[in-house]
Structures are given as C-alpha cells and as structure tokens.
Amino acid sequence: METNYLVLFSNVNDGMALYQAMQEAGMACSVSFSPKKVEAVCGITVRFQGADQVSAVYDLAQSKDIVIKEIIEDEGDA
C-alpha cells in the first residue's frame, strides 16, 4: 500500500493555491482539515499518495511561488 502524505502550510491561500495547481497538473490530491496533533499550521492540508510524488509536489510549489511549511507522512490518527 502506498504511503499518504500531508502538505502543511502557514496560510490557507498557499494551501488552496497548491491544491489548484496539483489539480491542473493532473495530480491526485484532496484538501482536508489539519490533524489536531499538528500545531502551528493554517488549518488545512493537501493530501496526496506516493513517495514518488513528494519531490514533484515541492517542485510544483516552487514553480508557482507557493510556500510549503512541511510535507509529512499521514499517520491516519487525526
């Protein structure tokens, strides 16, 4: 089974911008609330699947001037 990842942001605008950019690029993703255990983030995350996508997400964000706080593995215990 592939690993799920959460992209964390400092503000909602960056989160929604990355979600839209990933959708336009044909990358499977979804937006959800941040897990309670994750502190000091804007309240939303972008979720995606597959370790092979991590660098592609960082590259896409950089090309669109979107600031990612961190990408973490989704442990599923929100």
From TrEMBL:
<protein>
    <recommendedName>
        <fullName>Putative Se/S carrier protein-like domain-containing protein</fullName>
    </recommendedName>
</protein>
<feature type="domain" description="Putative Se/S carrier protein-like">
    <location>
        <begin position="4"/>
        <end position="72"/>
    </location>
</feature>
<dbReference type="InterPro" id="IPR021778">
    <property type="entry name" value="Se/S_carrier-like"/>
</dbReference>
<dbReference type="Pfam" id="PF11823">
    <property type="entry name" value="Se_S_carrier"/>
</dbReference>
